[in-house]
Amino acid sequence: MTSVGGFICCVDGGPTAWESKKQVDQALSSVESEYMALFRAIREVVWQRRLLAELGEEQQGPTPLYCDSQGAIALAKNPVLHGLTKHMKVKWHWVRSMVTAGEVELHYVKTTAQPADMMTKRLRQFWLTQPELEELRKQLDYLLEKKKIIRTSSSPFAPPILFTPKKGDGYRMGTDYIALNSVTNKSRCPIPCADELIDQLRKARFFSKIYLRGGDHQIRVVVADCHKIVFRTRYGSFEYVVLPFGLTNAPATFQMSMNQIFCSLVDNCVIVYRDDILIYSETRELHLKDLEA
To answer: 150 pairs with which residues across the strands?
Structure first.
């Protein structure tokens, strides 16, 4: 496994050295990869400490170094070489020597995952027919001007759009979010089981059905994440400000929101299955009360 490692060194609040490059050596685990990156960072720190000492500005105490890998930090602070580390090159364990000698002091800092490849790789665009281009213009005008569902974007991530024919007439526009979904942490909110829902209706005689058209579009997206849900067209790039169709967590997110809204009514007189809502009751009088609730 070859990864990209990087660091930045600062003296008196200003950057003096930085690096971001693909590692030459192959790592057998993510911890080893982080440990190799830690080696390169500490090597630069030690060199700068020596240089400052020669210039008469010797640093008192260890240099703080912030790392986002708890495994690499634990490995650097462990004085024992064991079976889990014997596959690593001897030179990487120089990190442990510098920590033990008090040259550097490691601190853990939590970071979020950066799907760099997904955000920077150019994604293939699909060829569109003339009818599809006409439908695209209509969809953009509708989503941009009338519904305020999308806005123009300058995000580097730009997956393609595609059209599928509807059962009747026209086309349904979608976005190819395969790359984004592959690096997304999957939600664990379960979708209701159909058999359990049907069992809830065994005594009911009166029913009312509500269909939430465009239900996903009622959920706003965190502003900081809007640049990820982009799509690119020949007319420019656009990003959603609400939950779009096609995201791996969209069904679970919408189901969780509906469960929260109807928390006191679910399994009493209401069944919610994504954007379909069914109100059920045993008598007509009770059904009218349930509808008002």
So the answer is: 240
Give the integer Cα–Cα distance in Å for 285 and 292: 11
In the chain, the DSSP E strands lie at 4-11, 14-22, 63-67, 104-108, 150-152, 161-165, 171-175, 206-211, 230-233, 236-240, 270-273, 276-281
- If one counts every other C-beta atom within 10 angstroms of the C-beta of residue 17, the result is 14
249-291 pLDDT, tens digit each: 988 889 898 888 898 888 889 999 888 999 999 999 999 988 8
- The Cα–Cα gap between 82 and 95 comes to 16
> Amino acid letter at 56?
G
**Per-residue model confidence as pLDDT tens digits over 139-177:** 999 898 877 899 999 887 878 888 888 877 778 888 888
Query: Domain spanning 118-292 has what CATH number?
Result: 3.10.10.10
User: What DSSP assignment string belongs to 125-139?
Assistant: PPP--HHHHHHHHHH
Q: Name the residue ranges covered by the structural domains of the chain.
A: 4-108, 118-292
pTM over the 0.70 mark:
no
Alpha carbons 199 and 154: distance in angstroms, whole number: 50
